Amino acid sequence: MSELKNDLLLRALKGEELSRPPVWMMRQAGRYLPDYIKLREKYDFFTRVETPELACEITLQPVDQVGVDAAIIFSDILVIPQAMGMTVLLEEGKGPLLPNVIKTADDVDALNTANVEERLSYVMRALELTKRELNDRVPLIGFAGAPWTLLCYMVEGKGSKSFDKAKQFCFTQPELAHKLLQKITDITIQYLKAQVKAGADLVQVFDSWSGMLSPADFKAIAQPYLVQIADAVSKDAPVILFPKGSWYALSDLSKTSAAGLGLDWSLTPQLARQMTNNSITLQGNFDPSKLLAPIPQIRKEVKEMIDGFGTKKYIANLGHGILPNVPVDHARAFVDTVKEYSSVNNNVTA
Fold first, then answer.
1. DSSP run (H or E) holding 240
2. How high is the mean pLDDT of the chain?
3. Smallest Cα–Cα separation from 6: which of 63, 65, 59, 44?
4. How confident is the model at residue 222 (pLDDT cuts 50, 70, 90)?
5. Residue of 133, 240, 304, 335 with fewest CB within 10 Å of its CB?
6. How many Cβ atoms from other residues are within 10 Å of residue 1's Cβ?
7. Is 199 left (phi over 0), alpha (psi -120 to 50) or beta?
8. Structural domain tally of the chain?
9. Residue 348: pLDDT over 80
10. Which position among 36, 153, 225, 314 bears the catalytic label?
């Protein structure tokens, strides 16, 4: 493997001393970029995801136009339910719809976990193509949805404010729920390992709905599967776990084989460091809505965020995905402020 010209992200995950943190943004490839919107007008969502050349083009846009320190492959977490044999529909602006939800043991048994590399070969081709086009400028991130979050969609059939049906499924049929979670875990491990083989330098696992669970339920329903994934995949590449809203689990998750933990904006840098005993790289946690504030305010708050985390074991990012209505120059201001930061000038001790 050739040397990366910018390996800040990988060095941050190893805990090396850096004068400034690396920066990227969740959902950076997509909806706020005018060039992406042009492609969206021409091709539907799954055409964009399943056409390696389009996925590659979209992945590279924020690297070229916003200057982030990493590329994240343009794809979707729901390619896994698709690969398992479920129908996934997506209407622009309405979110995903899975018309045939999981209800019974037969439904779970019918899910296919074999040959994920083959079934999702378009993701592998997109990674290979993007890796080549990046030409070692920055690392390439692969990703997957966490088992609990995927169960939410597979049982509920769509997005929800509370995922009551998914929770009811877990609470009333715990054995079946764990069987489903294990199936999702098994295919996700295969999928992430295949992504690394295809060119991903690291991977992130998005547990977008884990904050719906109480601490005890997270520990029973979400955490064991996140740990299994981290243990299996970290042998091949660094793993970042992002359990949104589950700040209460930071202490436990910092003791796993994950290389980094993503944070949302619901806790301070100080509390996150304290809960993880400063033992693991943290990523986050700027509120994406703040990118709609005036640029001088964005700059001030980004600097304060880095002051809070320090430059060691830290990756600057948002606390969730970038919003579609964020002006590109505001996204660029976020990235530039991180890139201009220097621990030497700011007298920060990491």
1. strand 239-243
2. 96
3. 63
4. very high
5. 304
6. 7
7. left
8. 1
9. no
10. 153
CA distance 306 to 311: 7
Rounded Cα distance, 249 and 279, in Å: 14
Looking at residue 75, the DSSP 8-state letter turns out to be -
Here the CATH number for the domain that contains residue 216 is: 3.20.20.210
Q: Does residue 89 lie within any of the structural domains? A: yes
Copy the structure tokens of residue 272.
């996150």
Taking the C-alpha atoms of residue 75 and residue 123, their distance in angstroms, rounded to an integer, is: 7
Question: Which residue carries 């875990």 as its tokens?
Answer: 185
For residue 236, pLDDT over 60 is answered with: yes
Say if 2 falls within a structural domain.
no
Looking at 89-103, 296-310, 322-336, which range is the least confident one? 89-103
- Per-residue pLDDT, 93: 77
What DSSP string runs through 113-143?
-S-HHHHTHHHHHHHHHHHHHHTTSS-EEEE
Q: Please report whether residue 1 resides in a domain.
A: no
Q: Is 106 a catalytic residue?
A: no
Quick one: average pLDDT of 9-38?
97
Do 97 and 91 meet the contact criterion of CB atoms below 8 Å apart? yes
Q: Residue 67 and residue 9: Cα distance in Å, rounded? A: 14
Domain assignment of residue 176, given as a range? 8-346
Please confirm, yes or no, whether 125 is among the known catalytic residues.
Answer: no
Could you confirm whether 40 is annotated as catalytic? yes
State the Cα–Cα distance between residues 167 and 155, nearest whole angstrom. Answer: 9
- Asked if residue 273 belongs to a domain, the reply is yes
* Burial degree of 161 (CB within 10 A; 0-12, 13-18, 19+): exposed
| Angle in degrees, CA 41, 47, 82, rounded to 5 | 135
Catalytic residue among 11, 31, 299, 332: 31
Which amino acid type is present at position 293? A
Give residue 350's pLDDT band: very low, low, confident or very high (50, 70, 90): very low
Is 257 a residue whose pLDDT tops 60? yes
Q: 7, 20, 27, 225: which one is catalytic?
A: 27
pLDDT at res. 343: 74
Q: Is 27 part of the annotated catalytic residue set?
A: yes
Query: Which of 2-16, 195-209, 333-347 is predicted least confidently?
Result: 333-347
What distance in Å separates the CA atoms of residue 348 and residue 350, rounded to the nearest whole number? 6
31 noted as active-site residue: yes
H/E element holding 261? strand 260-262
